[in-house]
Amino acid sequence: MSESKAEVPARAGGELIEYVASSLLPTRHGDFRIHVYRAVGETVEHTVLVKGDLNGRENVLVRVHSECLTGDVFGSMRCDCGEQLDAAMAMINEAGAGAIVYLRGHEGRGIGLANKIRAYQLQDQGRDTVEANVDLGLPVDTRDYQAAAQILHHMGVTSICLITNNPAKMAKLEESGLRVAERIPVLIERTPHNTAYLRTKQEKLGHMLDFE
Ligand SMILES: Nc1nc2c(ncn2[C@@H]2O[C@H](COP(=O)(O)OP(=O)(O)OP(=O)(O)O)[C@@H](O)[C@H]2O)c(=O)[nH]1
Ligand SMILES: [Zn+2]
């Protein structure tokens, strides 16, 4: 299948990430292209789903999504990740242009899958999502967004409208040199499984949710 030049990123030079490969990816949320970037000197492979030609575009609709195996793959209802990913893909498909930057290595807000499940064990015993990390002697959130900013720069995106409820994510992307023009909320329906978790995210992590 032929590809337009703008859709095939060249290798990034002197950066944290390097471009590896790209192909078409039809999904239940429409047709995307998938690009894979490798974190230089690491084994982590970041993925970007792209709709449309974003080269040189401003105010591009973007979701920067932290990997969550339990939510994204298994449909866990403990968190809102899987539904946020679905919603963001649907929004970008509807808009006809945009990107999902899917960050590996962000699992558990940076503590990894095994530690996240250790934290879930503590949450099963009544601790909240923040207290559980602290009890384990682990940081609450170690994620950085430099790779995401560099990937978007590399794709020729000049500014973004970020699909998120987390103002800290906007600030960290801006600190990494990417202009965030606007925040687009992505609110997931509350259930008995996620209500306490979402409330803690609002109260302790600063997420803009709609609890009174
Ligand atoms: N340590 C820990 N990580 C969690 C927990 N629940 C979800 N995560 C991880 O949190 C990350 C997503 O972060 P969130 O705080 O849900 O949301 P965000 O990315 O900061 O903000 P949004 O853009 O609004 O989704 C994923 O990597 C999940 O694996 C938990 O209870 N404990
Ligand atoms: Zn999750």
TrEMBL record:
Gene Ontology terms, MF aspect: 3,4-dihydroxy-2-butanone-4-phosphate synthase activity; GTP binding; GTP cyclohydrolase II activity; zinc ion binding
Family: Belongs to the GTP cyclohydrolase II family.
Source organism (scientific name): Noviherbaspirillum cavernae
Class in the EC hierarchy, top level: hydrolase
Pathway(s) of this molecule: Cofactor biosynthesis; riboflavin biosynthesis; 5-amino-6-(D-ribitylamino)uracil from GTP: step 1/4
Keywords, sorted A to Z: GTP-binding, Hydrolase, Metal-binding, Nucleotide-binding, Riboflavin biosynthesis, Zinc
Reactions the enzyme catalyzes: GTP + 4 H2O = 2,5-diamino-6-hydroxy-4-(5-phosphoribosylamino)-pyrimidine + formate + 2 phosphate + 3 H(+)
Pfam families: GTP_cyclohydro2
Entry-linked SUPFAM superfamilies: RibA-like
Active site (UniProt): D141 (proton acceptor), R143 (nucleophile)
One cellular-component annotation, GO: cytosol
Cofactor: Zn(2+)
UniProt: GTP binding residues: R63, V64, H65, S66, E67, Q84, E107, G108, R109, T129, T164, K169
Organism taxonomic ancestry: Bacteria, Pseudomonadati, Pseudomonadota, Betaproteobacteria, Burkholderiales
Protein name, entry field: GTP cyclohydrolase-2
Membrane spanning stretches: none
Residues that hold Zn(2+) according to the record: C68, C79, C81
GTP cyclohydrolase II domain sequence ranges: 21-185
Function noted in UniProt: Catalyzes the conversion of GTP to 2,5-diamino-6-ribosylamino-4(3H)-pyrimidinone 5'-phosphate (DARP), formate and pyrophosphate.
PANTHER family found in the cross-reference section: 3,4-DIHYDROXY-2-BUTANONE 4-PHOSPHATE SYNTHASE, GTP CYCLOHYDROLASE II-RELATED
NCBIfam families, per database record: PRK00393.1 (NF001591), ribA (TIGR00505)
Cofactor stoichiometry and binding remark: Binds 1 zinc ion per subunit.
EC number in record: 3.5.4.25
InterPro entries: GTP_cyclohydro_II, RibA, RibA-like_sf
